[in-house]
Amino acid sequence: MSRRIGRATSKLPYPFSQSGRGLLPHRRHHWCCRDASLPAWPNTRLGGGLGALAIAGGLWFTLQVLVPPVTYGPFPYHLTLTTPSGALLPLARFRGRPFVVNLWATWCGPCQRELPMLDAAATRNRDVPILLADQGEAPAIVTGFLTREGVGVSNVALDPARGLSQAFEVAGYPATAFVAADGTIVQLQLGELSRAALADGIDMARKHR
């Protein structure tokens, strides 16, 4: 990608985690679910006992020296999502303020676990909006899931074309982008969020200059 501005807080190589949707490398030790309809991350697992461990160890130290910090940005404000009721939701409405966007899907176990926490945080912290953007699912599926789980629709958007997944170059969920007021994606976390990680990301987005 050519749009590289903000800085991440983690380094390669990524660990891999197993889920029903496949293997996905991610930046922190949380479970991720890969979407098989999106381009897969390369599978870099090494086999072969002690020899593989030695190779992996050498690769780790080499990457620490050679691989520059991961960078992101700017945010794709040109995209337009929809609300669960079908109204257009242009992402340009978030220009000029820090915000959070979480990519999720109803079939994703980690997404299901973190969604109530994110929805509660979004309702509580109106100064930093948190948008819960479902990726690629029909409105009826999403609204049915939200009703069963007791999650409100006010913070939820639908991204049927998975435009945000493509813009962020992620192939699995959940994925959470913390965006500064100037549009820089200051952190992109793949995997389930804790309350502490959410607070840290929001603080980073607020303080970015």
Walkthrough of the structure:
This protein is an alpha+beta fold and 209 residues long. It has a single domain, classed as Glutaredoxin (3-Layer(aba) Sandwich), CATH 3.40.30. The protein contains five helices and 13 strands. Strands 10-9-8-12-13 form a five-stranded mixed β-sheet. Strands 1-5 form a two-stranded antiparallel sheet. A hairpin with a 2-residue loop joins strand 2 and strand 3. The longest helix has 18 residues. The N terminus is likely disordered.
Q: What's the arrangement of strands in the largest beta sheet?
A: 10-9-8-12-13
Radius of gyration: 17 Å
- Fraction in helix: 25-40%
What is the residue-mean pLDDT, rounded to a whole number? 78
According to CATH, the homologous superfamily is Glutaredoxin
Unreliable stretches (pLDDT < 50, length at least 5) are: 1-30, 41-48
Distance between the termini: 23 Å
What fraction of residues sit in β-strands? 15-25%
Structural class given helices, strands, pairing? alpha+beta
Using DSSP, what is the number of strands? Answer: 13
CATH class: Alpha Beta
What is the makeup of the main sheet?
Answer: 5 strands, mixed
Q: What is the fold named in CATH at topology level?
A: Glutaredoxin
Under the CATH scheme, the architecture is 3-Layer(aba) Sandwich
Q: How many individual domains?
A: 1
SSE arrangement, N to C: EEEEHEEEEHEHEHEEEH
From the spread of the alpha carbons, the general shape counts as: globular
Descriptive key words:
globular; two-stranded antiparallel sheet; five-stranded mixed beta sheet; alpha+beta; 209 residues; single chain; disordered N terminus; Glutaredoxin
